[in-house]
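Please, structure for the following, as tokens.
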Amino acid sequence: MSQDAWTEVDRYLTDTLLAPDPALEAALADSEAGGLPAINVAPNQGKLLMLLAQMAGAKRILEIGALGGYSTIWLARALPADGRLITLEYVPHHAEVARRNIARAGFAAQVEVKVGAAIDTLPTLQGPFDFVFIDADKASYPAYFEWSLKLARPGAVIVADNAVRAGKVLDPQGDADAEGVRRMYDLIAAEPRATATAVQTVGSKGWDGFCLIRVKSSLP
């Protein structure tokens, strides 16, 4: 199977299962117009995040890596009326675009975009969170996982995106991103407070995958 075939299947799944969505389409258009990299999650992946957060009954969500707010909007749609979402973004321009997109989608009152290096912002946050989505610089994934665990409630769900890196996670060979993901896996494997699995994916974003983590309600 080729990248073209993976993309066509993604398009079929999205066209069949997801209705046209002006707010999300505008978010992508504004991100492109603003010069943001096209590294947002695919539409079917965004809806997966929304469904996972809904299944978790999330009222407080943390997102590490806002980019243009596309995945943020998907996650915000999982919140109840009194729910809150905090999203962290390193690049000020990206955060500005994200705020506009989030406001146009109707979530300005529920979503807070914090600007700065996530590794500096995370210690200032007050938990607990019910759901955490990690999708930022992969070299820092070990630290992001450790902070997510600290800030999450027992039973919370953590999702780490881009967790296969086109297979480079098997043998990073000096690739800082793949090395970061691999170190995260080592931390998870040794962590008694977490249980996890990882799934490879192919699609419009190529060959990658995600790690799905559940914070245990008690130590084993």
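The first strand starts at residue 60 and ends at 64. The mean pLDDT is 96.
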